[in-house]
UniProtKB/TrEMBL annotation, chains A, B, C, D:
Keyword annotations from UniProtKB, A to Z: FAD, Flavoprotein, Isomerase, Oxidoreductase
Domain HpaB/PvcC/4-BUDH N-terminal stretches: 4-273
GO molecular function: oxidoreductase activity, acting on the CH-CH group of donors; vinylacetyl-CoA delta-isomerase activity
InterPro entries membership: Acyl-CoA_Oxase/DH_mid-dom_sf, AcylCo_DH-like_C, AcylCoA_DH/oxidase_NM_dom_sf, HpaB/PvcC/4-BUDH, HpaB/PvcC/4-BUDH_C, HpaB/PvcC/4-BUDH_N
Protein name: Vinylacetyl-CoA Delta-isomerase
Species this protein is from: Desulfosudis oleivorans (strain DSM 6200 / JCM 39069 / Hxd3)
Length: 484, 484, 484, 484
């Protein structure tokens, strides 16, 4: 049942996506050189699931069917499942050096498994039953789902229904007997055009006035009326160049797209929330917490960056310098400190009424807050170790040119046995992660993905038990309970 | 079998300890006003074990006897045990606002449970059997053990046997048929004079030349020839003053002592290592890792400090200022980030050949490294929120004086309903934790306890799998395996 | 005309101050062991002014009389004067290792030289003429002035006139033909009981409703109706102990007091502002900026802390360890970064209409903001280098005791030639600066003196030219001027 | 005499440079779209010198001729000159948003003015006379000089003469009666192909064995035998695209090149050092200190980045959020803290025997050390404020496309009056500075230019007066002078 990487690629070719980039419609999405590396990264999630040494991490047993499934389609049944999710993120981050895009779907499915259950409990609806059927379909077919949450938001000081253009948050424009029609857009959609399905969720807590915006559903990614406009990344067009050195990470990458829903029809059995506005925030919070945990992937990218830094230090003959060794320790320290956060919110997770295991919400936010800081410091340290050549290195063509090639090979030799070309490769990889296409994922996405830093601070503020702490302090210094 | 706090105090009164402070022998150790708060803190570890709401955390089931025992005497049988140890540290740190001194014993016992097993495996000795008998005695009597590791070390650039004075590391001076005679000292012994037992371990890795220093054993704390010289703490003599305000934390505290072994006899059945020098480092590393995990207690003290900061902000009418709220978030964020570290090294622990569960060594070091940083920043933020009055507040006597008291109460009033005296109490608590007696535990001990920061960095350097990371980096940028 | 240190001490003996401490009236202020070290520190400002090698820094030429005067009584006549003020602060901080308390007077005089001039320019009053006469008196008699700004403030969310008790800000309670009567208090007054004069200023910007609080004047420190209640410092009572080791810095220290004005009469010629409420903020801002610059003194204390850290590293035989050397570099780096801030705000000062040179206001705030951060990190690094013994060292009495003394000297020896007693001295000095009496000045006063961190952030926010910066950004990316 | 921007461009067209990029010889250097923005940035140094409002900063009076000259060709005659140099850097950084490349020449000239004088003083040579003639030529013709210091270095653990290939440091291969022949390369040459002259200096301290490497000279940039191979920058090829939005900073940029000297002849009157190996370090240190001061330019780029961050916050309607305001304060605080460093090392400069004013060496290193840290944090904060759209924004072509353009304009509208296109412009500018071509200058060059961080730490270690600091500490705690 679990797809192979090859089957995944083949399945994408069957999709009929409407994708735009650089002002043009993309005719062959799978083979487009800027998109393909991101497809390769998703393919890795299929490939590793078939490797015996990664089986425990990459696969799980479906609680619906009892079959072995790819963990990305699994509903967490224990804290052990949550811890394995953390490990899977690190594994794949290290294997691809970039965002592999499949977490959002997993996190959406798990969040919906709880929210649909809780809506039903209140209203006697049947969202959870629909959802379970949908989940089984996803598991059976081993699908990649895009989890689409972020609306364009327009003027951020106004709620959805007060925006000048009512479509700045995705909304229900018509309710029909057999389904609904929706309009709007979802921004920053990671991996959108590599997905079989798109799962739409609201992006903020809502009040009754916004109830038309309180909608969640799933659709095939090539449903009628959906358009994708690709976002640019730093250094994106290096992927159009010949050669492999200057791309840094020639095989893997990521992408983001604006996904536009232009009066798209959603059949009833694909709808998981419809105007139950008081559950919008509920779903957002659950998805966000799961997705914050998912940033364990950056620990894997950090492994690659640390490995690259150590390698260039060795190539330069500088690896024994005390300050270099100390910087490598600091990089490891920061990277493992991150890992602790994702592990801790997983290991202290708990079972929700729906049966799904949920991460420790406070610690998931604490972890993600560190993700908005440490990768930047890791990048700074990597650039320190790499040396200035990382940004002054001539192009791969210059290395290959009969005129300039020998000159470069002469002047960029370091210690015996190191090929100048390999020195260039490792420098370009560090450039890729700290300034190039992968920096989009390693830095900016670490900052804003799963919520910008202030979103986590608000959650920390809400979740820290301040009354308990005040009580402890007052007790110790002799202030009586009812005293101020 | 588990002692009550009262029984614990009574048991201490029966000890005949030789303790010196301020140039004088202390006649009544238990009631000495500078020592007593530290006894109170240990007593809390007995008291809470009898509270039903803390039973799961504070007690465990002995793997030797199957009886319910205080967790401080338990050998960890699962990662769940390790996680509970972390929670117990936080609980007690929050309940006492200081160091409660009983972790060193627990960590020594667990380390010895492994090292004695491993020595026996190599040499066919019977250390583990002796140890198990000793452990059962400790569990049955619910004893507090001092874990004594740090030697004075003399000239740090020289190994034990090269020191001018051979006693600068504790050593075996004579081997008799029925036991050994040892001489030397152990410095910085937290809780030494509140302990029933002292467990001695070597402090560094050793070579054959140092084998007389490779010794581990346990003795009653009042064994013939042991002397305790108490260390001073910042603000220690405030405990001699009347009143309770200026002490900050009037009931709880900590203490450290230099423990001198002046040709002390150790019977054979109390010896757990004797000249097996190659296991000195083994024992040090195991104790250190467990003890690094134990710094979860500082998260509990952090809870108190955060609670105190929030309280003084409310007393001052400043709690709604955005910068104050943000500083409280940052304090919580740092404190929970610490918590994640201790949890993570516990949750990813594993079973050693001896059957004991051991923490994740790398993550324990990563956690402790953060402990050498974050409490300092938490203190800085607490002092920021507290305002300058924390260090310019007149004495409790001035508050009580008929002349100055009314003046102080007039001018130190803030918003309605806040007693100026309570404002003083909470400020003195923050002073206590950030500058006073508790700062010794919260700051300096966080820095140096369980190894100074550089010790952790060396471990991180050893334990990070750099070859794996280099391999990942090279694979991604296209450097062939055997290439440099 | 410039007093010697001896003459200064003699002059203090003639004062008739009403001082309370520990619930008792202090009969002999000058010789009280807790107060005397702070007197010694002020005396240093007199002593060094007579040393030829410090003449350029410590003295200036009065712009009123042309005579050589102590720089602490000088009105800055050039940016060179401002730079010398910075250097004087560092010099004295290094010479005393603590707060020498005389800056507040200098900063008050300079601020008043401008504010009185500007009030007169608006209202045709004669405050500046009065002030000049007063200044000449201070210069001729080489007086130490306390600059008293901070009111108790009560409920911080309310302005002065809305406080339940109208005295929570110092105010004019009666205007008489020959003067005024004032009531209220000033908190945190550094060096108050070592001063000949007290110069009172308002503490916040005010509106018309608060005009009774908009008052500035100078009085002899022993004027009828003024009472001083001394604040406590961490480890203050160590100064009452015999011996010199445990005090850390046995000769120098600081102090703070609450200064209470109980219907005190101020004659007209000592009044520098009376109800010109719109100049309250003007005076506060000028005093604050000068006083922020004054924190150059902490760079001098930093020099002492760095010197002590290097010394203990050498005593321990650890000074060649790479991590120790790197921490010393970091300490120097942070300390000199601070120095840059004070120098820069001085070197870019300008002449105000009154003729007085004023520091660069933005950079003075930027500097002080760093003062609220870097000394804490310097302290942390010093504690790292010092090792745990700093907080576990037995008392000086134990060193002198015939029983314990030899034991301590045996076990606290390090490398050849280092006296264990000297090791104790240097550790106690580091304890003094990072936890003890001097920590009050080096840490908490660095945080809150001359305004808490948020005060500087508000000023930075006001003074940064954001329109200019937006214009530059828009110009570069091609956004037209009038576009948003 | 001072050239206009137009004259500068015309003068470049007359040069006959041998430049390679992307494996091809560049036929028209001035108009090449990737190179031209860097030419524009240099041109700005000519343009602003003619603007009356910048005259005081941008121009100086030649101490040789008494004529008004561009400050970039001036030898500093006072600390005021040094302070103006700092201000000029900030001005131009703000006007271009990038590296304007002309400091290296100015810093080389000033360093040579001292080193040539000092060599002559020791050896009675005439280097200074030659240099003065050369300087006059540069001033009269208002030339841009590349200061070429960094050699490729090969195996960093070996000195020049021990490298396998002797050319890995530039060296004298032949001494002729009328000049010398040199071979080697200089890496990372900023602005190389926009320069009229190239001034070569050694890159490290040397011993006698390396004397053939101890050489300094100046040549026209198009001298026979010199080849330039251009380095790549992140996002460099966006400059080849149509439109202006996606380039971020469409008009200005920087470049670096490898400059190869293939047996180039240098006539005697252009030689400023020849085998006086003991002055190699002397020259390196002087150039480095001046050049470290020059990083004041990054404060100007910081102004742009802060302005852009404020602008996008306003566009998004988020500028009133407290956390955004606080982040803007922090950005300003860090940026002005940097400014303080450059100002301080200038204001405390001193006159050298040659008459040239030299910056405070310790503070210049302290400043540069902060430059290796703060711009990274400023970038992180800018990315925080910018939001995720910065890295997911579609291309300019998509904005212009009739199909996708209206969709993007609909969904990327924010508050009233903000053009979505302008939002894109400002986001692309932030991308440019934090990830794109300008990040090379703002981040990586801040790290490694004028010496990598460790180089500054070594200098701080050497220049901090530790003996003085130890003496202060010992004096305060009562350790006698001759005691350890």
């Amino acid at each position: 049942m679990m797809m192979t990487a090859e089957a995944y690629e083949a399945s994408l070719r069957k999709l009929n996506l409407k994708v735009y980039m650089f002002g043009q419609k993309v005719s062959n999405v799978v083979d487009h050189p800027i998109i393909r590396p991101s497809m390769n990264a998703v393919a890795k999630t299929y490939e590793l699931a078939h490797r015996p040494e990664h089986e425990a991490i990459m696969t799980a047993t479906s609680h619906l069917t009892g079959k072995k499934i790819n963990r990305f389609t699994h509903i967490h049944q224990s804290t052990d499942d949550l811890v394995k999710k953390t490990r899977m993120g690190r594994l794949l981050g290290g294997a691809t050096g970039c965002c592999f895009q499949r977490c959002v779907g997993m996190d959406s499915l798990n969040a919906l498994s709880m929210t649909t259950f809780d809506i039903d409990a209140k209203y006697g609806t049947e969202y959870n039953k629909r959802f379970i059927r949908y989940l089984e379909y996803v598991q059976e077919n081993d699908l990649t789902c895009d989890g689409a949450m972020t609306d364009p938001k327009g003027d951020r000081s106004l709620p959805p229904h007060k925006q000048k253009d009512p479509d700045l948050y995705l909304r229900v424009v018509e309710v029909k007997p057999d389904g609904i029609v929706v309009r709007g857009a979802k921004a920053h959609q990671t991996g959108a055009v590599n997905s079989h399905e798109v799962i739409v969720m609201p992006t903020i807590s809502m009040r009754e006035e916004d109830k038309d915006y309180a909608v969640s559903f799933a659709l095939p990614s090539d449903a009628e009326g959906i358009t994708y406009i690709m976002g640019r990344q730093s250094c994106d067009t290096r992927k159009l160049e010949m050669g492999t050195i200057d791309r840094g990470n020639p095989f893997f990458g990521g992408h983001e797209a604006l996904v536009v829903f232009d009066d798209v029809f959603v059949p009833n059995d694909r709808i998981f929330m419809l105007k139950e506005f008081e559950f919008a925030g509920h779903l957002v919070e659950r998805f966000a917490s799961y997705h914050r945990q998912s940033y364990a992937c950056k620990v894997g990218v950090g492994d690659v960056l640390i490995g690259a830094s150590q390698t260039i230090a060795e190539y330069n003959g500088a690896e024994k310098a005390h300050h270099i060794k100390d910087k490598i320790v600091e990089m490891n320290h920061l990277n493992e400190s991150l890992f602790c956060g994702s592990l801790a919110c997983a290991a202290t997770g708990h079972k929700e009424p729906s049966g799904t295991y949920y991460v420790n919400n406070l610690l998931a936010n604490v972890f993600k807050q560190n993700v908005t800081r440490f990768p930047y410091e890791l990048s700074r340290l990597a650039q320190d170790i790499a040396g200035g050549l990382m940004v002054t290195l001539p192009s791969e063509q210059d290395f290959n040119d009969p005129e300039t090639g020998p000159v470069l090979k002469k002047y960029f030799q370091t210690r015996d046995g190191v090929l100048p070309e390999n020195r260039a490769r490792i420098l370009r990889l560090i450039e890729n992660i700290t300034l190039g296409t992968a920096a989009v994922g390693y830095l900016t996405e670490s900052m804003h993905g799963a919520g910008s830093p202030q979103a986590q601070r608000i959650m920390i503020s809400r979740l820290a038990n301040m009354e308990e702490k005040k009580k402890k302090a007052k007790a110790l210094c002799g202030i009586k309970d009812n005293d101020q």
